[in-house]
Amino acid sequence: MSIAELLDRDAVGVTAAFATGEASAAEIAAAAIARIAARNPVLNAFTDVTADRARSHAAALDAVRAAGQALPPLAAAPFAAKNLFDIAGLPTRAGSRINRDRPPATRDATLVERLEAAGGLLLGGLNMGEYAYDFTGENAHDGPSRNPHDPTRMTGGSSGGSGGAVAGGMASIALGSDTNGSIRVPSSFCGTFGLKPTYGRLSRGHSFPFVGALDHVGPLARSVRDLAASYDVMQGPDAADPGCSARAPEPIGQGFEGGITGLRIARLGGWFARHRLPESDAALASACAALGVTAEAELPEAERARGAAFLITMAEAAEFHLPRLRERPGDFDPAVRDRLIAGALLPATWVQTAQRFRRWFADQAADLFRRHDVLLAPATPMSAPPLGTATVTLDGVEMPLRPNIGVYTQPISFIGLPVVAAPIWSAGAALPLAVQVIAPAWREDLALRVARVLEREGIARAPVAPFGA
Amino acid sequence: MSEPTPPDPEALIAAMLPATGIPCDPAWRAAVAANLRVAGAIATNLQAFPLPDSVEPAPVYEPGR
């Protein structure tokens, strides 16, 4: 097997190849850099490539191995980060034109630092929708990231480059953020596994925020074991993130292999059974069949929950960007700017009602989890639409595409529940579509166990897309 | 008691925009109004839900951090 083909393995597989001497870290870094050079002009996932940094870290790892010292858990695994995470030496553009005038970051984001300390080779920053206010993966300044399974289609946003880098075989693991669905949507469109942990589980320290009350960060990867391995090394309190929990790390280790015997799993009905297209029906049906799920559960008032998340997002993001809206409104992506200006005009009681509704809705979910251990729902109604698509017909009604990509993800992140997006390839489907495996707060282990069964059964998988096919 | 109705977006823009200090190009106003129309419909529906008085807001704050 060539070194380039080795990059089609998952991160744990690459680390094993390095540990056993199948390849050096320098060879892995060189192959990853060459692959980015070949594929990124089409896929547009990377906005910055940190080749020198990857090479020098690889040399250090080779020295560790040559000295016979213990290797870190993700040694030589190529990774990259959505460009709202600080990377020392680069301005943290957060998908915007405005931010690239900022001075370069003087240090790395907490999660970048932790993944690199675990042996990961940082390859660069990844394309994203402007200021993360996006479900498409399109970007007015950097151009759209393109779906590796069909470059005429969307990656999904806002962590579009993260989905594209992983599905395109340019990184084994990509960091993303998820406020209303931005890890789960690209996972669905690009066919990657994604973990949106419990709100507060992983540190957002030294990343550029979108909506502090709703922002989560987490990994996209090509296997459940990669999600678990990266999640384990990234956990832990961080004073740099006021929303990061003080809980001690709860590493899952190999616990994702625990199976589902005894778990009470149900599919979500109600709101989550509306707006379906044949591909989301098929993906959920495949997952339910593989897991033997027949029960249906209802999370009441999910539509209002989605609306409340929408209002909080508008208002909080508008307040955060107010100085930039006053000084440089013409430099925003117009679609983002117009949403933000509208958000700056919302009556305060609307937002306060949304925040009170959030408490009520979280209580409903907690009640539901007394009867079920894990809930399933599609991540998106549709598989990846062609770039530039403006409308979608759901339940016979034509509506704007952008906001409706997130109809199933938004109510869940609203109350911070952990979710694994498991990419399902239904029989005969040309494109993947992910199912959300939703667990109670702080029970990422349950979501990973269920996703692992789907992976083991061959229902969920995240292959590298053939390039240039 | 009168039933709340979604506000007229143009009226909301006229009343609130000056207080924000955002120099909004007239060409952008139609799109801003469209966003406000969506938000207004959502808010009206949300506030029609009878939340108990016992329900407190759920923002993020932990004293001492």
Topology:
The complex is a heterodimer of chains A (469) and B (65).
Chain A: H1 3-6, H2 11-19, H3 25-43, E1 46-49, H4 51-66, E2 78-82, H5 110-117, E3 121-126, E4 146-147, E5 150-154, H6 160-167, E6 173-178, H7 184-190, E7 193-196, E8 216-221, H8 224-234, E9 265-268, H9 278-291, E10 296-297, H10 302-327, H11 334-343, H12 348-368, E11 374-378, E12 391-394, E13 397-400, H13 401-404, H14 410-413, E14 419-424, E15 433-438, H15 444-456
Parallel strand pairs in A: 2-3, 2-6, 9-10, 9-11
Antiparallel strand pairs in A: 1-3, 4-5, 6-8, 7-8, 7-14, 11-15, 12-13, 14-15
Helix pairs in contact in A: 3-4, 6-7, 8-15, 10-11, 10-12
Chain B: H1 9-20, H2 29-47
Separate helix tally of chain A: 15
**Total of domains of chain A:** 1
Write down the Rg of chain A: 20 Å
Strand content of chain A: 5-15%
Helix count from the secondary structure assignment of chain B:
2
Structural class based on helices, strands and sheet pairing of chain A? alpha/beta
CATH architecture of chain A: Alpha-Beta Complex
Termini separation of chain A comes to 20 Å
Radius of gyration of chain B: 16 Å
Distance between the terminal alpha carbons of chain B, to the nearest Å? 43 Å
Protein name (chain A): AtzE family amidohydrolase
Organism (chain A): Neoroseomonas oryzicola
Pfam families (chain A): Amidase
GO molecular function, one term (chain A): catalytic activity
